[in-house]
Amino acid sequence: MGKLNRTYTDHELKIMKEALNEVMTKYETNNDYILERESDKKSFLYLFKGLFPKKRTCIIPECKNRSVRNSHTIQKAHSLKIIAEGNHIYSPIFNKKTLKLEMTRLGINQASTFPGFCSKHERIFSILENSKDVDSEEAVRLQIFRTISRELVVKKSELSQLLAMKDHYLKFRKKKISELFYAASSEKISNMAFPKSITLDFEDKNLAAMNDEIEKVSSDIPFFTSNFFEPLYRFIFFDGFSDDPLYIYKIEDSNKIPVTLAGRGSFHIEKDGVQHEIHAILNILPLVDRTAFYIAVELKNREFLEYYIAIFQQTGLPGLNLAETWMMRGSDHWFIQPSVWDELEDDRKEQVLKDVLDVGHHIAEIYDYSIFNSLRRKLTATHEEACESADPEVRRQIDSEISKL
């Protein structure tokens, strides 16, 4: 409830308390009462300065050098270039002006970049950038480490912006409630010196949501740092390439799936009546004649990961389902071949962009709709021709894939 922070006559105090109660009742009944103006809502969006800070130090511990502005998470010269058309790709990006997630055209020089490493530590990834196929153990680890590093930079930036948004909201709320209070009081009392400020101690739904998100991100950063970033950092920079601190599973699909992804996801597995949430690092890397999938988990979760992979191996098109599910249920940091997106019907595009924002699913829930329509039609037709015996299970799998189109 709001509090007045100075002393007034009984009459003045009565009038002001009535006015304050009127304003606070409206506000507590509907927390968005103070956000009725569209300009007020948009003021919070413009606090968002972008996914990354313009300047930051190198993410490598003990390094004080400034990071280069554009470290690539995904290989520019290979994975991005393979799916690019005219050196451009598409990626889902939030538009602050339209307040919508939109498929955005990007050049491969700008795609998948973040301020992560200084020029010295950036050179560590030269073996990765110069490799046509990320197939050596060293290159795979570096790719996983680069993905982990980007995710950590994103989380730290997200926390910084959430704290700035909370601070802005608290100041905005205090100012707005004061303005509404002054307006309500002035109708009954004229020419009176009102209190300079009003103290608010009410956690409304907007503030509660911010606090919940701040707590979530604040706890996630040390977890992610200690369980993923630091173990692989020590392994790469100090321990040499012997036993992996993470369990990395590789899946290869003989088809070139026109998407590349680098990010993070999670899935839930039940064992002995206990539900386990498994965090994973995800990479989809299109190669010249095939597609490589890499998923990394903590070593203790190896058994759960193998169970997870089996879910997709039981589908008609494991690689295609894995790609679409990671895109929709895992990370939104993905890039797709423009012509593949352009050929989709408008309602399917709308559905996909809507589902990207739906965080109520995990990567063990296979995505329901087709994104790669041409490739799915081609592969299901090939399976149908090869399935003259009409095995019931194979037939069921083919029908399931066709139903997604």
- Low-pLDDT stretches are none
| Tally of individual helices | 13
Q: How much helix is in the residues? A: 40-55%
The tally of strands reads 11
Strand and helix order? EHHEHEEEHHHEHEEEEHHEHHHH
Neighbour order of strands in the largest sheet: 7-10-9-8-11
Summed up, the domain count is 2
Largest sheet: 5 strands, antiparallel
Shape: elongated
**Gyration radius, rounded:** 26 Å
- Residue-averaged pLDDT: 87
Please give the alpha-carbon distance between the first and last residues: 54 Å
Structure description:
This protein has 405 residues and is of the alpha+beta class. The protein folds into 2 domains: 1-66 and 128-244, no CATH class; 246-402, no CATH class. Helices cover 48% and strands 18% of the residues. It is built from 13 helices and 11 strands. It has helices at residues 10-29, 38-45, 76-83, 119-122, 126-129, 137-186, 205-239, 302-313, 318-330, 338-342, 346-356, 373-386, 392-402; strands spanning 2-4, 71-72, 88-95, 100-107, 113-114, 198-200, 246-253, 259-271, 274-286, 291-298, 334-336. It is elongated.
